[in-house]
Amino acid sequence: MFKPSTYSCCCWCSVPSVRDHPSAIVHHLTYIPYHEDRDEMVPLNSIQNSGSGTENEPFIVYRNPRMIGKENKHLRFVCMSDTHNDIDKIHIPHGDVFIHCGDAVNHRTSSRDIVRFNDFVGQLSHKYKIFISGNHCVCLNPKRPDKSQKLLTNMIYLQDQLIDIEGVGIYGSPWRPKRGCFYRAEAFGYDSKHIREDKWSKIPDGIDFLLTHVPPYSIRDYNSSTEEQLGCPDLLDEIVTRIRPRIHLFGHMHSCYGASSYKSEDNRILEGDQFQTDSNDILFVNLAIHQGMSYAKSTVIDYYY
Fold it and tell me: Domain with 178 in it: what CATH number?
């Protein structure tokens, strides 16, 4: 729907700047981003998503709203991202599926610390453990995901791959628009002009969970130092016009931790000809745990399907 001219590029920019691209309207469920005006938030009115994402009050999400109030199978997902060598300092509730959306380590010591991370995850009680890379995981070879999987023996490593967990479809992709050559933590950076065609267009529709490291443009992607939204516009477009996952999990932008709900009826301009009145809401969650001198909490989701 939108062409590569969405971007203006400079080799020293933190990411290619986005111009003239529609922003998504979302309803914040937890932690309204500090740069947004609380008076401008649209009140949430939805029975498809409930809860606060905590161990005692998990987000409750249904694959289909017609399932509400009926007997359904469900799995508990315990999710996080951007732990940067401090995962052992974080309380990790028990659940069925553990998900980590990248930057488990710091780039300077990633080769050593990814081994420690793998050992720690191996001690968790969750039946399934899933990991995608982040920009700090420079020790993982983008061209050899098989080698990354051999290194990460205690979890399922996803790189542009769809898996089925007891009937729940989960797709993971670690890519993000490439930043300027000044930056060293640059694993899985990709040419912004080709990332949609080469990466995002390969994501299948009809999935339950989408895992990426980068956020979609305008959804919990604000960078306070540059005062820009640094999510990927092509990822946003693919998600809302075609993929339509029930849940999109990501990290990367530490200052925008929290959850938001997307509703099609509020985004007709963004969805254009693809707008459908019967579309399910999408739960977007920025899982970035590391908050400088403090840590956010794991996000817990009970998924009924």
Answer: 3.60.21.10
